[in-house]
TrEMBL record, chains A, B:
Top-level taxonomic group: Bacteria
UniProt-listed PANTHER family: BIFUNCTIONAL UDP-N-ACETYLGLUCOSAMINE 2-EPIMERASE_N-ACETYLMANNOSAMINE KINASE, ROK (REPRESSOR, ORF, KINASE) FAMILY
Gene3D superfamilies: 3.30.420.40
Protein name per the record: ROK family protein
Protein family per UniProt: Belongs to the ROK (NagC/XylR) family.
Length: 316, 316
């Protein structure tokens, strides 16, 4: 085929469902977002998604596949959504077959963390690697793993949950009973709460909205020593989870994205320092710790890239 | 081929090099062990290994390949031994090509933890799985990982180092600078030292030789509450590292072997309890925690199995 094939990527979020037409690493057309909460049942929302797909196809005849990233637990092989973290009613929905029936296009459905990892692997910072760990730092801490040049989804599509791994076997008890889960220390809200407590204890109280990761990054950039120390501590905790990924998987690169990673060097400097201090030669000599290339578009780009790869392998 | 092909498995240890003829899951003929320390240079030891291979071939004409498990850092693809943990002089030795030249047989060389994992995966407790974690508990704590039906060796052949992963980001500083490495808590010697301290503190001092994992298992079996508590604590710490493997890799099964695992239920009961308390449904509902099938023969069986698979894929 001489022309670059196009795919639709759909980033299904708790607030909105965003669809775009993706050409390689670029969203060349955005559909108007659908408000997720306008629909009390999956059927109506699926109809709205189908209409968006048809609208985009009418404008772009080169579209050959559709990829959907879902915020929850998905059976990738069968394209069934088992359940979603923040959207009611989405239980055991065979989304792939429903969309394929209604659009006639090949569809892949995966969880959003895998889509983000796929975007960075195929089109972003991790391009060209065969062994890669991608971590997304936001309200939740998620991840995706590539080993031997393949996505690792595990036996029941759960692999890549870096945020649930423990950095302290005697630590805080998390959502799933897991002690010391990374997410419970460096998730958005936990960073804010820790900062709020730390400022309070230091006698220079700050309101919660001045303790967000973005506010802490701004404060540290202006020389606030408490904020700098807080970022050092975040880097240290993240380094432990990344180090565990390295000892287990010996990746060529680790890509770090998500809102919290926008702190840049404030995060990456301590992360690198604590990480390299705790690995031996073969694990660190060629290791690259890279900021993610894609921001909020990662899910869309990754879902589309996955759809293209899948349709290449299975339909051509 | 109507007859079951045979392979030679070689378990290269710091004390002795043991070779055997392997048929499926059984060593059908053992060569007399070679004392590793009799040789000050690799060349002489390699000659001795070649003689053992030729002796075994003379007795078993069906031998089609040779596998070698090495206690150290090996480039599997090129069959080069970079260095060994406890044997001097083995630096950048192209063992695969040296043995292939001298025997005319296809040879694979991997590290011993991968060979053990391969044995459990192809011939042992993990047979039939596509996503598996194997952990060996001894003086060192090692491991091997299978994902998507393939061994995961990582970018530089280091993957699977479960014993170096951290269970406490503020824990003891280990051999590679890594804080809170599992091996530094539940390696053979650390179990003994912890038990010695614990008995000392409780006022019922025990000599070190009554604090070995085997002695502790015997004591716990006779109702010693301190010993039982020690095993509970070992199980808890191991559970954290296993849990991290599960959140990252979502395996179907985790196989646990090595000397420390001979404690049986004393180890596996707390391990299961703490592990299942800290995983969500998709990670634990179908998860099997299994004792290894092979003991000290795992390395030989696994090296031979790997050699057979490799020669199948590349030479036929």
């Amino acid at each position: 085929m001489s022309e670059t094939p196009l795919a639709i990527g759909i980033d299904f979020g708790g607030t909105s469902v965003k669809a775009g037409v993706v050409k390689l690493d670029t969203i060349i057309d955005h559909a108007p977002p659908i408000a997720t909460q306008d629909f009390t049942e999956p059927a109506g929302l699926i109809e709205a998604i189908v209409r968006v797909i048809e609208d985009l196809r009418a404008r772009h005849p080169g579209i050959v596949a559709v990829g959907v990233g879902m915020p929850g637990f998905v059976d990738f092989e069968n394209g069934v959504v088992y359940n979603l973290t923040n959207v009611r009613g989405w239980v055991n929905i065979p989304l792939k077959s429903l969309l394929e029936e209604k659009t006639g296009l090949p569809v892949v459905v995966d969880n959003d963390a895998n889509c983000m990892a796929f975007a960075e692997w195929k089109r972003g910072a991790g391009q060209g690697t065969k062994h890669l760990v991608c971590i997304s730092l936001g309200t939740g801490v998620g991840g995706g793993i590539i080993a031997n040049g393949q996505m690792v989804r595990g036996a029941y599509h759960g692999a890549g949950e870096v945020g649930q791994t423990s950095i302290d076997y005697q630590g805080r008890r998390g959502h799933y009973g897991n002690m010391g889960a990374l997410e419970d220390y460096i998730g958005n809200n936990e960073i804010t709460a820790t900062a709020h407590d730390t400022y309070g204890e230091s006698g220079t109280s700050k309101p919660l909205d001045e303790c967000s990761p973005a506010a802490l990054a701004a404060a540290a950039a202006e020389g606030d020593e408490t904020a700098k120390q807080l970022w050092d501590d975040i880097g240290k905790k993240l380094a432990t989870a990344v180090m565990n990924c390295c000892w287990l998987l010996n990746p060529e690169a680790v890509v770090i994205g998500g809102g919290v990673a926008r702190a840049g060097a404030l995060l990456f400097e301590p992360l690198n320092k604590y990480l390299l201090d705790q690995l031996s030669g073969p694990f660190k000599d060629h290791l690259k710790i890279l900021p993610a290339r894609f921001g909020h578009e990662a899910g869309t780009v990754g879902a589309a890239a996955m759809a293209l790869e899948w349709s290449d392998h299975h339909h051509s």
